[in-house]
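Lab meeting, action items carried over

1. Structure of the two-component assembly. Owner: GW. Status: complete.
Input record:
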Amino acid sequence: MSKRAPYSSGNGNGSLPASVDTPEFPKGHVDTPPSEESMMLSRRGLLGAMSATLALVGAEGCRRPIEKIVPYTRMPEDVIPGIPSHYATVYQRRSDALGLVVECHEGRPTKIEGNEAHPSSFGAADLVAQASILDLYDPERSTTPLKGGAPASWDDFERELGAKLAGYDKDQGAKLRLLMEPTISPTVLRMRAALAQRFPKARVHTWSAVADSNVREGARLAFGKPMMPLYLYDRAHVVLSLDSDFLQTESGSVRATKAFSASRRLRRAGDTMNRLYVVEPARTTTGNMADHRLRLPAGDVERYTYALAAELAKAGVSIAPEVTAAIGKKADANGIPTKWLGVVARELAANRGRGIIVVGSRQPARVHAVVHAINAALGNVGATVGFAPVADASELDVAQDIKALTDAMGGGQVDALLILGGNPVYDAPADLAFGDKLAKVPFTAHASLFADETSEKCTWHVPLAHEYESWGDAQALDGSIAVRQPLIAPLYAGRSDIELLALAAKAPEKSGHEAVQSTAEGIAISGRQLTACGAPDDMGTVQCKDASGNAIPVHTYELERDWTRALAAGVLQRAQAKQLSPALEAAAIGSAVGAAKGPAAANGYEVTFAPCPKMVDGRHANNTWLQEMPDPVTKLVWDNAAILSPATAKELGVENKDWVKIGSGDKSITAAVWIVRGQADKSIALTLGWGRKKAGRIGNGRGFDAYPLRTTDSLGWVSGASVSKADGEPYFFAQTQDHDSSENRPIAHEATLAEYSKQPNFPAIDAPPLRALPLWQQQDYSKGHQWGMAIDLNACTGCGACFVACMSENNVPVVGKLEVWRGREMHWLRIDRYYHEGAEAGGSEDSPLEFHEPVMCVHCEEAPCENVCPVNATTHGPEGLNEMAYNRCIGTRYCGNNCPYKVRRFNYLNWHNDSVWKETGGLPETLTMQQNPNVTVRFRGVMEKCTYCVQRIQATKIAAKRQYRDVKDGEIRTACQQTCPADAIVFGDVNDMNSAVSRTSRIDRRFALLQELGTRPRTSYLGKVRNPNPEML
Amino acid sequence: MQIFPRSLNKLPQAVGAAATLGLVGVTFLIWYYFSPWFTAVGYMPKQPVPYSHRLHAGQLGLDCRYCHVNVERAPLAMVPPTETCMNCHQVVKTDSAALQPIRDSWASGKPMQWVRIHKLPDYVYFDHSVHVTAGVGCIECHGRIDQMEQVRMEKPLSMGWCIDCHRDVKAKQGDSEHIRPVAQITNMEWKHEGHVETPRHLDPPENCWGCHR
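Predicted assembly:
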């Protein structure tokens, strides 16, 4: 509101109050990757380069280069050169499967998009899925089987594995073990069963550093069988997240974001929205969206849950007596703000059947079970909380499972260990010393995308095919199943997990394709659950059996038809509409809570481990886009950090960039410090997946490895850690935004829901008057298409999917850490974030409110950049686009200096070749295969910026012209809009009063960024509305 | 004592005149010889197979779209795959020595490597389909292909040349001589006589992002 000082000055980057990080040259330049070290050319080098250039000018200038046209020999069906084709596929994200549509140019996959038909995607994709296309083309992926580190052939491996396994036929594989990651693939499970059939005594273990064991086990405790909860956030009026980052790193975050944002999209003043309470130790994307956020160490969340249950019981919620009895003994509200119990309990009790309590996957299973009991007592189960069957019911707790395996390895009970995917030497619990025990196993084989830390210690390494190179299938969280079809033949001679399992099991299926197709036919033959189809007879009829064993004839054309349809749609079988609403087994929960030692009293420091939003568990460490993507919370690139609260930092006597030594048990690590306001005191947050040693040129040695502190019984956090300041030069961090205050400038408009209903156009009221008049005569924008965009800041969660989508679509180069520090990052789209104390909305100095705002070129109608370009390289198009002609640009950078939004980026170097890949002689050929052929790859010396995805506008316009029709609303979708899980971005024709973008821009809380400058931007923003509970303030 | 003859008094004028003429000459030379009208037009490289458009498109009367199938629906008109040649040449001229590369390609699966003649810079995103469906005939950019034994570049394909046509069509619509009925796009003999009904309002772009991205 106008009277409020919206963003108190100072209190910058969550770092030190009133600190504006002054740029100083990085003295403690500890992490200078060799590729970035010296961008400066010596005088001698410069002269050499100049003379070489001169020589080349003479040689090349006179004749026009001969270019060849290489057509197909035999034209593949459905390929039209120049027009991309799209294929549906599916990508595993933790326990969820994300349905995707992949754009391919002449057989080259280039861009990932969400699949609208898939129930976990609804057309959106998250940032990791967006970036996965770069992993596919990673030039450092493993290219050949390795035996003891030396290249070998697949034949050698097959022979040796075959001989080894043949030896186990007698004792049924008693000393054979298989270690794999949790799977959601029906075919992998089928192949695993085939392996178990061949070797009944062999054991399968599962391990992943980022798993949902506690979630499954919690549901099993509460309801008797392992299930995955499904939260229907769109139906909830109040959501309480207990250490759950359900909008970013937890399983099913895309569907969660879709639903959550749907109920925060206010169409007009008077609309209602949900209220989000978050209890968490470290800031996350979810915490940033919270209306009320309580910073609480992870170890205290259990205490909070029990205290809340006791409070709910007081508020008249009848939680199962066995549960209340068990937690009654342990309830301890010491140190928890009373409002966070009383008020939250009252609000949850008042919204029975319209609330959700969600627990984070690192919290122990018993907390999950108790929360299921509370949700059941509140009537939420069956209304806002559903349950779906898990794909692999036999999966055990991953920590216990890998412990059982390492114990057996240490005890000499394992003769051969096959490791399918994963990287246990790097990420297994430190107390198990997995790497050391591995040496005691005579035959070990590791299949993975990269020859990594684990491969190095195994007798054999074989390259695994990437998901986009191989057939597969995946079950989504809700139980629906989709087929993963390959988009390209394996680039590096990899084989898929299904093929390797089939090889070990001697399964009849020769290829992954065959295996997946026969699974699919078993799942969805004409919608019937049929199995055991034999070979077709002369008439093409196969005899199938239904569940009760009756023979049912099915014609092969039916099988083909269903298969083709499933491939085209991207969904093989939809989940049943009705979710499971099972009966609560309260006694089991009670005894589990009673038997547990916890919650332990807090002692010393706590160190929490969370999957990195970018690296997950470290598997994407070699991905340049993700490395250079600013962390959603800290805005750090190319690093993680030990996150401390200001109070903890003061206690330890450290500042940003200082080092701390963190010890737990006999293990310790050192890490550099980053201070974030909003972090719980006495709690230190580290994200997983950093500090890799064998990730590849890009990922090696980046950030700080937290795994040495992580043990079997402390996968979520360790308490009682010893933390002290360590010596060392200040660490060199690079951030994309080092100042976090908006300095009272009206660029981040927000209000509370109450203020909004009183003053619906609050951003306009806040905005200063127009203070610059147009320089030139106004153009007439009333005719034809006029493109514009609208961004709903209330729906946006700041997850960063748009960011990676933009890099992928527009060939945005990566510049490296040092150049980001110099402020030369090339991102066309950035997500600004501001902190403010905002006591009126529940913020405080220790835990400020966060505001984030995606900013890309706003396509001003009166563009300041155009006025200063001396060569007319940036001009205005008739459809309102601010156009940039790279070939005219001479690189004066006047436009960038005159742009008030700072969205223009200058190519100081030929970034694609001369930044992170410089040492390998430029951008590797495989990575060029990812580039979008419809967007110019910019060279050094030119300016660039967001184009509103003009290539998509033009392609759609041309397609419409070709069909002699007009462009339909919604037909053109920019890359950021397409992938946004929150549907926060709308694009279209602002001249069409009925277009989605026009309707969105007419919403009362609209504002234009820096409108007082008279730039008349085409991008509108909708002001953010918070929904604080007045009782909490 | 006069050292220089009187006639040298005219030297400054002569030098001036020569310089002026020279400047005009150099301007003309650069204006013409540095322009695509000279550097590009007439480019006629040798192809791996001496394919004659005069024979196929002219005398035999094959429609352009028999080989360049995507011209109406894609940015690229597409140089045909070997398969298209073999549609006929499996039975026609099966022993021709000139066709040996085609048969080799067909047998080995290795694609033909034709030399590109009509080359636009990489930052130009030209789309055949939008031109052809507007009624811009093949002849407008490629000339009388049906009379070429060996294909040569007929038009400069320079930006100024493109824009001239865009401006003309925008102003005159169906009265522009560059526009013909869509049914006649491949007809090399068709002459523009009077107004042509255009299938849509023609609005060829003149802004940068119309063609560059």
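2. GW to write a short summary for the group page. Key points so far: Residues 330 and 597 of chain A are 10 Å apart (CA to CA). Residues 1-39 of chain A have pLDDT under 50 and may be disordered.
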